């Protein structure tokens, strides 16, 4: 029987009806206007109703939600969701009451990894590491065909390993995390800081006072053109990412490494540095037979994975 998949972001909710093989039957999107838990539950219910209607009113059996944040694996309580400003919200229970069927809430990256494992670039893998660099940095670990959750459900938080103890402040509230240097939001923040310093002619000429041009790719271009400040930020970020992913390969010895997220997909130089880093720094035995591949499902991976996890 099909299930519902929900992708809960800070600005939009997407809902989809997904069949048992992971194919999308229908989908719907709704803007998050009211960020209170009650408001978000209503928005999810609207999008879910719309998706079921578009699918011809099919019967669905269960609902999976992928949400950015730290989620208690059994209770469906969202401990921390920074983009919604939530702490300890029992989303699973609230949605179950509203929708009338079983609800499973998981971290968005776990959902994406599960989607890729069953319906995308991870098909057939038993041991896989999924590394995403988008606005944030994250990873998910599949071992023996199962998601590794960790004792508290927050295993695989690649973005929050420390690369500079006591360094830049991270969105998680701690200092010196990988994400604070290499996440897309923070690449943009560091680019803005460099522009504000007035010491970066090449970057200034590329941006031309147009804030839309302040992107990780512009930073990469400025670094390639020899802008010293851009080069410093860019090389540091790419270098940290390369070592971090390579070390994870050494630790976990995955058969497959799946790369995804906007920064890795749109900044070819950073992607290349990560690939070279795995070759250069992961232990030789850990990368023997390692297959490196790109995510296939794009923005649908999380919604498909959440639906399949609920099946
Ligand atoms: Zn952090």
Which helices and strands appear, and what pairs or packs with what?
Elements: E1 3-8, E2 12-18, E3 24-31, H1 37-54, E4 63-67, E5 70-71, E6 78-81, E7 86-89, H2 91-99, E8 103-107, H3 108-119, E9 128-133, E10 137-143, E11 146-147, H4 178-182, H5 184-197, H6 201-207, H7 216-224, H8 228-252, E12 256-260, H9 262-266, H10 268-281, E13 291-294, H11 301-310
What spatial order of strands do you see in the largest sheet?
A: 3-2-1-4-8
Number of helices: 11
Overall mean pLDDT stands at 95
How does the helix and strand content classify structurally? alpha/beta
Shape: globular
* Range of helix content: 40-55%
| Secondary-structure element order, N to C | EEEHEEEEHEHEEEHHHHHEHHEH
Number of domains: 2
Distance between the termini: 8 Å
Protein name: ROK family protein
Family: Belongs to the ROK (NagC/XylR) family.
Give structural notes.
With 311 residues, this protein is an alpha/beta fold. The protein folds into two domains: 3-115 and 299-310, Nucleotidyltransferase, domain 5 (2-Layer Sandwich), CATH 3.30.420.40; 124-295, Nucleotidyltransferase, domain 5. It has eleven helices and 13 strands. It has helices spanning 37-54, 91-99, 108-119, 178-182, 184-197, 201-207, 216-224, 228-252, 262-266, 268-281, 301-310; strands at 3-8, 12-18, 24-31, 63-67, 70-71, 78-81, 86-89, 103-107, 128-133, 137-143, 146-147, 256-260, 291-294. Strands 3-2-1-4-8 form a five-stranded mixed sheet. Strands 11-10-9-12-13 form a five-stranded mixed sheet, with helices on both faces. The N and C termini lie close together (8 Å). The model has no long low-confidence stretch (mean pLDDT 95). It binds zinc ion.
């Amino acid at each position: 029987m099909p299930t519902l998949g929900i992708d809960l972001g800070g600005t939009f909710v997407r809902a989809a009806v997904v069949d048992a093989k992971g194919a999308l039957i229908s989908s719907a999107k709704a803007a998050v206007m009211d960020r209170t838990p009650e408001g978000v539950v209503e928005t999810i219910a609207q999008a879910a109703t719309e998706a079921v209607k578009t699918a011809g009113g099919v019967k669905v059996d269960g609902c999976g939600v992928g949400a950015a944040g730290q989620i208690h694996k059994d209770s469906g309580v969202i401990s921390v969701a920074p983009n919604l400003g939530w702490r300890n919200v029992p989303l699973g229970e609230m949605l179950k009451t509203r929708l009338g069927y079983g609800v499973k809430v998981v971290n968005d990256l776990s959902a994406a990894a599960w989607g890729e494992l069953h319906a995308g670039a991870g098909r057939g893998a038993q041991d896989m590491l999924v590394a995403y660099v988008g606005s944030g940095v994250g990873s998910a670990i599949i071992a023996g065909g199962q998601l590794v959750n960790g004792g508290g459900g927050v295993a695989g938080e690649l973005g929050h390993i420390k690369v500079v103890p006591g360094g830049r402040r991270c969105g998680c509230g701690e200092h010196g995390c990988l994400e604070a240097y290499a996440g897309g939001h923070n690449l943009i923040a560091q680019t803005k800081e460099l522009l504000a310093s007035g010491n970066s002619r090449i970057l200034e000429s590329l941006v031309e006072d147009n804030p839309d041009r302040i992107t990780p790719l512009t930073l990469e271009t400025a670094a390639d053109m020899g802008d010293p400040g851009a080069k410093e930020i860019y090389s540091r970020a790419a270098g940290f990412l390369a070592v971090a992913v390579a070390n994870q390969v050494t630790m976990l010895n995955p058969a497959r490494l799946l790369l995804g997220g906007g920064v890795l997909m749109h900044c070819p130089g950073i992607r290349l540095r990560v690939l070279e880093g795995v070759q250069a720094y992961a232990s030789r035995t850990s990368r023997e037979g390692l297959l490196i591949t790109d995510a296939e499902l794009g923005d649908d991976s999380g919604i498909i994975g959440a639906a399949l996890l609920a099946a």
